[in-house]
Design brief:
The chain is of the alpha+beta class. It folds into two domains: about 50 residues; about 60 residues, no CATH class. It has four helices and eight strands. Helix 1 crosses helix 2.
Length: about 140
């Protein structure tokens, strides 16, 4: 799994060589060269290759994953699709987990795999207005 690289240690107005940038970010020189091939801007193609700190920060920040958002009431998060999805036909099974929580299970509209969502039992009436819910008994499983 790739390491998360933080650009916070970089100075925006400083120029870095490939080695200096690699050392300040705690990555290998090969990683920095790979970033240059992936369009990390350099000052010129001549040696030594110099990279402006603000360009490196901008490149690293653009590679971050977008911030996740809260799911809407009619959505589940599908692990296969990696996106918020709707339940197929708005048909949902509800399993009461404890006195305060319930688990909603449905089928993803995109990949037709099982998706689940934990909710508060206090919010169950809101979800009943959105979905066609069938209740399952925990002791039956």
């Amino acid at each position: 799994m790739p390491k998360k690289v933080s650009s916070r240690s970089l100075k925006a107005h400083r120029t870095y060589t490939v080695l200096e940038l690699a050392e300040s970010l705690h990555v290998t020189v090969g990683t920095v060269r790979s970033w240059i091939k992936q369009d990390l801007r350099t000052l010129s193609s001549k040696r030594p290759i110099l990279i402006v700190g603000s360009d490196a920060k901008e490149f690293l920040d653009s590679r971050k994953k977008p911030i996740s958002r809260r799911l809407l009431e009619n959505e589940f998060h599908c692990l296969s699709c990696s996106t918020p999805v709707r339940a197929l036909g708005d048909l949902v099974d509800c399993t009461l987990q404890s006195e305060t929580t319930a688990r909603l299970s449905a089928i993803c509209m995109g990949c037709e795999k099982m998706v689940c969502r934990m909710i508060s039992r206090a919010d169950l009436t809101n979800f009943e207005q959105v979905f066609d819910i069938s209740y399952r008994d925990v002791s039956a499983t």
